[in-house]
């Protein structure tokens, strides 16, 4: 009888130990709808690693969270003009490239672009290259604006209160500066004042600054023109897409979004496993097909045509440089002034 009791106690202890065993996890901090859910699900099935995803809607929000001392995240998705400040604050892990299969050697982005933010790709892996544009409802807007790649639509009283602009100082001030012929990282007071005056004119004519629901508003007819990203169309089929136009206005801000591992990532090995999984051709093609962006990898070809071809994006947009401290302070100041007026 005693032996039976001891055996039962032994199995109970083993069971308790198994239940308290720490489950493998991965914590990702990224843009909403940035990685297809199917990729997370397939990774979890293959590895048993639980993926937890949190979202930000601007690079500034992401940076502020990290500067506040939060250390729970393993992977982030910074745009190129924020990589310098992330490196300056020692947030990024120097990547062990031996842990990746056929990724870095197949990147087609030019050295001229790479050297503006991470020349040797020691800290980041490019994820996509595109540009912020204007989306139009074809039956509601004069086609001349797309044909002329014009931002004058934002001043057209015919569409007053039926347009939106991103609620993102870097995107909006940068676009205004480039539209006026100035660099997006300007700290010249006269140039910044011109940009501010232009944005205030836009503000009088738009419905709001908006980052999240502008795509839905466009497809439901609430808005006829929105400033934002091409992923506004990722849930629209090819036939329905014919009802819309996405174009890059003069002054368009190019972006290269990336994947990076945080230096103090609590689950660093799992982060490497996920990124290696993500960039395998059979997985990454799902990114290209869902978001209709052009491939920047020579060995990965999309099954669906991109919204805009890579060459068009490269010719009609400019990759912004990182803001230095003075430019950041001045641009933040005028953005706050714009928002409160």
UniProtKB/TrEMBL annotation:
The keyword Nucleotide-binding does not apply. Keywords: Periplasm, Signal, Transport. Residues 1-20 form the signal peptide. It is found in: Periplasm. The keyword Transport applies. One of its GO terms (biological process) is polyamine transport. It comes from the Bacteria. InterPro entries: SBP, Sperm_putr-bd. One of its GO terms (molecular function) is polyamine binding. GO terms for cellular component: periplasmic space. This is Extracellular solute-binding protein. It comes from Streptobacillus felis.
């Amino acid at each position: 009888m005693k032996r039976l009791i001891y055996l039962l106690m032994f199995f109970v202890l083993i069971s308790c130990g198994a239940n308290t065993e720490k489950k493998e996890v991965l914590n990702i901090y990224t843009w909403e709808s940035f990685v297809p859910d199917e990729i997370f699900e397939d990774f979890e099935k293959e590895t048993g690693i639980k993926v937890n995803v949190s979202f930000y809607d601007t690079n500034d929000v992401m940076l502020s969270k990290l500067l506040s001392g939060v250390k729970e995240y393993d992977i982030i998705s910074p745009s190129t003009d924020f990589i310098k400040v992330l490196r300056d604050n020692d947030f990024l892990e120097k990547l062990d490239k031996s842990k990746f299969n056929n990724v870095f050697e197949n990147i087609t982005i030019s050295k001229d672009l790479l050297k503006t933010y991470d020349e040797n790709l020691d800290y980041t892996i490019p994820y996509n290259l595109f540009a912020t544009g204007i989306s139009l409802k074809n039956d509601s807007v004069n086609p001349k604006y797309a044909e002329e790649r014009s931002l004058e639509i934002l001043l057209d009283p015919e569409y007053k209160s039926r347009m939106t602009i991103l609620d993102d100082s870097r995107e909006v001030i940068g676009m205004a500066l480039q539209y006026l012929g100035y660099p997006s990282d300007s700290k010249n007071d006269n140039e910044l004042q011109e940009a501010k005056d232009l944005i205030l004119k836009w503000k009088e004519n738009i419905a709001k600054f908006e980052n999240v629901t502008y795509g839905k508003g466009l497809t439901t007819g609430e808005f006829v023109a929105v400033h934002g990203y091409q992923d506004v169309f990722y849930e629209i089929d090819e036939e329905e897409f014919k009802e819309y136009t996405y174009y890059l206005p003069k002054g368009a801000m190019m972006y290269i979004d990336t994947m990076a591992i945080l230096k103090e990532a609590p689950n660093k090995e799992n982060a490497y496993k996920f990124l290696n999984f993500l960039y395998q051709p059979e997985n990454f093609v799902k990114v290209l097909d869902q978001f209709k962006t052009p491939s920047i990898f020579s060995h990965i070809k999309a099954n669906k045509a991109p919204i805009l071809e890579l060459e068009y994006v490269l010719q009609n947009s400019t990759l912004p440089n990182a803001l230095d401290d003075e430019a950041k302070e001045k641009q933040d100041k005028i953005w706050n002034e714009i928002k409160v007026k």
